From TrEMBL:
GO terms for cellular component: membrane. Belongs to the neurexin family. Pfam families: EGF, F5_F8_type_C, Laminin_G_2. CDD domains: EGF_CA (cd00054), FA58C (cd00057), LamG (cd00110). SMART domains: EGF, FA58C, LamG. This is Contactin associated protein family member 5b. Keywords: Disulfide bond, EGF-like domain, Membrane, Signal, Transmembrane, Transmembrane helix. The chain crosses the membrane at residues 1141-1169, 1181-1203, 1209-1229. It is a single-pass type I membrane protein. Residues 1-42 are annotated as: Disordered.
Length: 1278
């Protein structure tokens, strides 16, 4: 790694310009003082550069710069270009795609830069980007490295090299292929080999990406066998050198392109690659037809081509017999004559050229989907326009200001061809219809005349601005992709975007999970029992899992089912051929392991019934039946919370039927015995396999069922530590936060300031602190100076109440949020450092070292500290740390839910109070429903407050930022009671033309319409109070449902159907009619608009039209306050008022005359009060009453009730009196019949012999998969 520039002759130096002979180029060597003391360009030079020819290709490992001797001239920053031929330059970029090197701060200091990855090149070019503010550009340079030797072969697109084996075929279990290539085309085969049994290996360029196809030991008739295809890299046809390495051992393959590696595993049954006769490089020649190839050949150069240690190019150069050459293969690499230009700015870049004809050719490459490529003035006022719009080319010929068409023919005089309209052509009608073009252009030909861009660069031809000539500086910002969790990456010229739709994650890089980490977290949000997506590791690598959350009175149970939930009968199994049943759960084993680790306690019931079927051999104790845990280990205990050997539940309880054995089944009795057990050792759960091996004897039989995995509690949700000494702290391993990190926790304190956590590096750091009593600050540095985000609260945060903090940093942005305050964003520089380099421990509670900084240690409580999806165990560390104690004192620190329905628990000196500000409920514990009766014409409008930055700047850019920073999930919950349909229940609109409407249609179905023209239709009928809770996610610019619509009515689950539609006529009708009825407990995210309308009527955020009356309609039971029947005409108002009274009388009569259950009463009210018109009521009552009364009585009751609903008031009273008389008669008949039965003795019946017991019938109740869970469900609605 010696110096490479100091010994070069003067002819090795070139530059864009030189200010004078005294500042000649050969004086630009490090520490050179003679001459002008270095290189200095002319001051009028628009794009100065200094070029060094190293005379041959060498490996450069470092560079150094220095200012001009004895002057105030130096370069403060520069970019480094390299090339093999002196043209087609490529910019050197570091690991984080940083292309700018820091330079000097004075004229004599030397700045060294060791290149993170060496570069093999002959030419180096230094481009100053910044220079001395006291003088001008002055530069002396040096490069360090060593010599580099290589073997090169040039393929012209019609040639190839064949490497032939010594034997007929070559079978290998290990292969290594390495090479460097430089391509002039986007497609072409580099390596290919195949065998007769179907094996093959192919490495080819396809669309500028490198694809590897591999098949091991599988016939083409089995397409899904061992075939594997993987693509890597991008823009590999850029005429630059790229390195490739393929390593295969058996089925494991490592595929590397330019330091980016993919690890893949092949399928199929084969481990070896069998190739017949030969391997081909550069193409696939057709056997028997020289010069004919099956696919596109490679056009470019290959360097240092090795196959399993064999230098293929060296053998070809020495004309060894193993190598056969097809076509013209030369052993030197020729360059390309095409010269590229990069348009750097979408607003200032342009290239203006003279033209004398209508024809032209150009090649371009860009990531943007819009931009103007060409404008040309033709004869008169005619113009020619070529633009890129929506990723499509559009060529337009404008004949006049009002007439345009596609170009056909035209007479041309002297015109200009430009890629952006310069100001000088504005008076000639040149206008930019879109943004200017940003990208690369090469091979510009105008009227068969090739444009020499070097003359443009020298100022001899045309004009230009913000242009780089002889370089295409296009970057693939999606390789490697910074998008997480499988999100799709897309990009423009200057940035990239991640499409998070369908991933379950959100944020700039799809880092944040939109799902709660546990069922306990759903309970705190007020969710009812149901299926939920749970993401236990948050932003970690595991995807969400769907589980059932059972919200009981005491605990919240997480239930995970498997594929064999029913009972299984086993007969005919033996130790040699046992019965084996594998269980597959609705979550993966990795997800289950994380769920179990987070839960407080878990259990799984194994119901096992046996008859002459032993669990263990009675002679030597060998297990005959067993189960396997999640690690695949065999377990032989059948109950208990600790693992054991040959133990069942009866042995733990000491109540086995035969105390000589540890299990009831080992008594080997012919009667049915029970060894059901509850497994509760978390490290072994869940059961993944059951093996039964002793049911092959006469009369032997076993019946088993493995229940659901059930867990309760969340160990980390209330994991807390108290810091009561300022010098005390907890330490954890270094944060893994190179590309992204998120930190979330709760805190409460009375101290005015303090550092929550800090992690340091050699230069970088990250810190979250309470900077003032009302502000939380997030500070970090990633090589470009400290970045600070701060959120200020209008109330003090050191109020001894819990506050939530969430900070995130990724390669695109940083964010900070405190409680429900607006989210603060800070965008990262587009080409700045990306990796956060930390090396110290993570300190929680105070900065390190404390005496070197102004920050104070934290005094107070921290809870639920979560970093990148992993919750740190504060309590465990606090137990062994002085000055810190586990847990946090106070009433609001346990898992007991003191405040309900999103209520916030606030500590007081003598207790606690519940803050119901963000809850739709009121009362001491946020359980009192807030209800309003709406009349015709009544409405409530609540105005949301947008972030100040968006309100201040209504530009398109701020709108995009606000849309991205807005919530990714809307949670709407309310209860309603109405008899009018259609009805508009709720409408939500935003400044950015997004909306959501909730509509009740005329036939009782529920519609949710969104601005993305998707309508979600929920099918149910409106009966009394309905409790509605649903979620809508807005991810990546598209609306999609999270498949969790829970519509509860007496524990009934509704199903969701969605379809695309426009605005329905029914929607317009509902909007015109509004809503008449009762609305209760309306919640929209963390807001309660209905409650705000009642309590803050003078607020500027709330607007009320009509008469808004607060009511207790939401609290009253639907069986005590019954709605007026909607099916009587207005003229029958008295009868309408009397109908509930008649229904009560009828119900009392039914209960007196016949046994009636709660369900039957409910069933009757369901049809009578809501659905039944006169005819339907008659039919339904006739059917219902016929089950309890004689036909004549049922018919008379139904007729009388129907008459009471359809007649006027006198007729209704007559029907009512008739109904009462019939009920009294029925009651007397019932009493007399019961008394006569009590006096008559019951006849003696012959006792029959009990039928033989069947285990399927005997234990059906026990084997029900959800019996216990279903009985214990309790629903919560918010």
């Amino acid at each position: 790694n010696g110096p490479l520039v100091s010994s070069l002759p003067p002819s090795s130096f070139q530059s864009s310009s030189s200010s004078s002979d005294s500042q000649s180029l050969h004086h630009a060597k490090l520490n050179r003082r003679d001459g002008g003391g270095g290189w200095m360009p002319e001051r009028k030079d628009q794009l100065p550069w200094l070029q060094v020819d190293l005379r041959e290709r060498v490996e450069v490992t470092a560079v150094a710069t220095q200012g001009r001797f004895g002057s105030s001239d130096w370069v403060s920053s520069y970019t480094l270009l390299y090339s093999d031929t002196g043209s087609a330059w490529k910019q050197y970029r570091q690991e984080d795609h940083i292309g700018v090197f820091p330079g000097n701060t004075n004229a004599e200091g030397v700045t060294h830069h060791k290149l993170p990855h060496s570069v093999r090149t002959r030419y180096l070019r230094f481009l100053p980007r910044g220079w001395s503010s006291k003088g001008w550009i002055g530069l002396r340079v040096e490069a360090y490295g060593c010599s580099y030797k290589s073997d090169v072969a040039d393929f012209d697109g019609r040639s190839s090299l064949l490497y032939r084996f010594n034997q007929k075929s070559m079978s290998t279990v290990k292969d290594v292929v390495s090479l460097q290539f430089r391509s002039w085309r986007a497609d072409g085969v580099l390596v290919h080999g195949e065998g007769q049994r179907g094996d093959y290996i192919t490495l080819e360029l396809h669309g500028g990406r490198l694809a590897l196809h591999l098949n091991l030991g599988e016939s083409p008739r089995q397409p899904n066998g061992g075939h594997m295809s993987v693509s890597l890299g991008s823009l590999l046809d850029d005429q630059q050198w790229h390195s490739v390495q393929i390593e295969r051992f058996n089925k494991q393959v490592n595929f590397t392109v330019d330091r980016l590696t993919r690890h893949v595993h092949t399928g199929g049954t084969g481990d070896s690659l069998e190739v017949d006769y030969e391997l081909s490089f550069g193409g696939i020649p057709l056997p028997g037809k020289p010069g004919t190839f099956l696919r596109k050949n490679f056009h470019g150069c290959l360097e240092n081509l090795y196959y399993n240690g064999v230098n293929i190019i060296d053998l070809a150069k020495r004309k060894k017999p193993q190598i056969y050459s097809v076509g013209n293969v030369t052993f030197s690499c020729s360059g390309s004559s095409a010269v590229s230009a990069t348009f750097l700015s979408s607003r200032r870049s342009f290239l203006q050229l003279p033209a004398e004809g209508p024809g032209g050719v150009l090649g371009f490459r860009t990531w943007n989907d819009a931009g103007m490529l060409l404008w040309s003035g033709l004869q008169g006022a005619q113009t020619l326009l070529l633009i890129l719009a929506d990723a499509q080319l559009r060529l337009t010929h404008h004949r006049s200001a009002l007439q345009s068409s596609e170009i056909t023919v035209g007479e041309v005089e002297c015109v200009c061809v430009c890629v952006r309209c310069p100001a000088a052509l504005a008076n000639q009608g040149c206008r930019n219809p879109t943004l200017a073009y940003q990208g690369c252009i090469r091979s510009i030909v105008i009227n068969d005349y090739s444009v020499d861009l070097y003359r443009v660069q020298q100022g001899l031809l045309g004009n230009y601005s913000d242009l780089q000539i002889d370089i295409c500086d296009i970057r693939d910002r999606c390789t490697p992709s910074y998008c997480e969790h499988g999100a799709v990456c897309s990009q423009t010229w200057s940035t990239f975007h991640c499409k998070c739709s369908g991933t379950g994650y959100t944020g700039a890089t799809c880092h944040n999970s939109i799902f709660a980490p546990s069922c306990e977290a759903h309970r705190l949000m007020g969710s009812a029992s149901g299926f939920f997506s749970i993401d236990p590791d948050g932003s970690g690598p595991l995807s969400p899992a769907v589980v059932y959350c059972n919200m009981t009175e005491e605990k919240v149970w997480m239930v995970v089912d498997h594929n064999i939930m029913g009972q299984v009968t086993v007969m005919g199994s033996s130790p040699q051929k046992p019965h084996v049943m594998k269980l597959n759960y609705s979550a993966t084993l990795s997800q289950l392991s994380t769920l179990l680790h987070r839960a407080e306690q878990c259990q799984q019931e194994v119901v096992y019934r046996c008859r002459k079927s032993r669990l263990f051999n009675t002679w030597d104790g060998t297990p005959l039946s067993w189960w396997r845990d999640r690690a695949g280990e065999r377990r032989t205990y059948w109950g208990g919370f600790l693992p054991g050997v040959q133990q069942c539940s009866c042995s733990l309880a000491e109540n086995c039927i035969d105390m000589n054995y540890f299990c009831n089944c080992d008594a080997d009795r012919s009667s049915w015995e029970n060894d059901t057990g509850l497994l509760s050792y978390k490290e072994h759960l869940p059961v993944t396999e059951i093996t039964v091996g002793d049911t092959n004897r006469t009369g032997s039989e076993a019946v088993y069922r493995v229940g659901s995995l059930q867990c309760y509690g969340d160990r980390f949700l209330w994991n807390a530590a108290s810091f009561y000494q300022e010098l005390s702290y907890l330490h954890f391993p270094t944060l893994q936060a190179e590309l992204s990190v998120d930190v979330a926790f709760y805190f409460k304190t009375t101290a005015p300031s303090g550092v929550f956590l800090e992690n340091l590096g050699a230069r970088d750091f990250i810190r979250v602190e309470l900077s003032t009593p009302s502000a939380v600050t997030f500070t970090f540095e990633v090589g470009g100076g400290p970045a600070v985000l701060s959120v200020k609260s209008h109330v003090p945060l050191n109020d001894k109440q819990w506050h939530h903090v969430r900070a995130e940093r990724n390669v695109k942005e940083a964010s900070l949020q405190v409680d429900q305050l607006p989210l603060r964003f800070l965008e990262a520089p587009p080409d700045g450092p990306a990796r956060l380099q930390l090396n110290s421990q993570l300190f929680v509670g105070k900065p390190r070292p404390l005496w070197k900084c102004k920050q104070r240690g934290f005094l107070g409580c921290l809870r639920a500290l979560n970093i990148n999806g992993m919750t740190l165990d504060l309590e465990e560390r606090a137990k062994m740390t002085p000055g810190v104690s586990a847990g946090c004192p106070g009433h609001c620190n346990g898992q007991a839910q003191l405040c309900h329905n999103r209520g916030r628990c606030i500590e007081r000196s003598s207790g606690y109070v519940c803050d119901c500000t963000h809850s739709a409920y009121g009362g001491p514990h946020c359980q009192k429903e807030v209800s309003v009766s709406f009349e015709s014409g009544t409405s409530v409008t609540y105005t949301f407050q947008e972030p100040f930055s968006v309100m201040r700047n209504k530009s398109r850019q701020s709108s995009a930022i606000y849309a991205q920073s807005s919530k990714s999930r809307e949670i709407v919950a309310f209860r309603f009671l109405t008899t009018k349909a259609p009805a508009m229940l709720m409408t939500v609109t935003t400044y950015h033309q997004q909306y959501m409407t909730l509509i009740l249609t005329h036939n009782g179905t529920f519609i949710s319409s969104h601005s993305r023209s998707f309508t979600y239709r929920y099918f149910f009928q409106v009966v009394f109070f309905f409790f509605l809770q649903f979620r809508v996610s807005h991810i990546g610019g598209t609306w999609l449902d999270t498949h969790k619509c829970y519509l509860h009515f007496k524990r009934r689950l509704c199903l969701l159907e969605f379809f695309q539609t426009g605005v329905d006529e029914e929607v317009l009708q509902a909007g015109s009619r509004g809503f008449v009825g009762c609305l209760s407990s309306v919640q929209f995210n963390h807001l309660a608009p209905l409650k705000a309308a009642i309590l803050n009527r003078g607020s500027s955020l709330v607007s009320v039209l009509g008469n808004l009356v607060e009511s207790n309609c939401g609290e009253l039971s639907p069986f005590l306050v019954l709605p007026v029947s909607p099916f009587l005409p207005p003229s029958h108002a008295p009868s309408r008022a009397l109908s509930p009274f008649l229904s009560l009388i009828l119900l009392l009569c039914l209960c007196l005359s016949h046994s009636c259950s709660f369900s039957s009463i409910f069933f009757f009210f369901f049809f009578f009060l809501t659905f039944a018109r006169t005819l339907s009521l008659f039919l339904s009552l006739s059917l219902f009453l016929s089950l309890s009364f004689p036909l004549s009585l049922s018919l008379s009751l139904s007729l009388s009730l129907a008459l009471s609903l359809s007649l006027s008031l006198p007729a209704g009273l007559i029907a009512a009196l008739l109904l009462v008389l019939l009920c009294v008669a029925a009651a007397m008949t019932r009493v007399l019949h019961r008394c006569r039965r009590e006096r008559t003795p019951a006849p003696s019946a012959a006792r029959e012999k009990d039928p033989p017991t069947r285990p399927e019938l005997l234990y059906r109740a026990d084997l029900g998969p959800r019996a216990a869970i279903r009985d214990s469900r309790k629903e919560y609605f918010i």
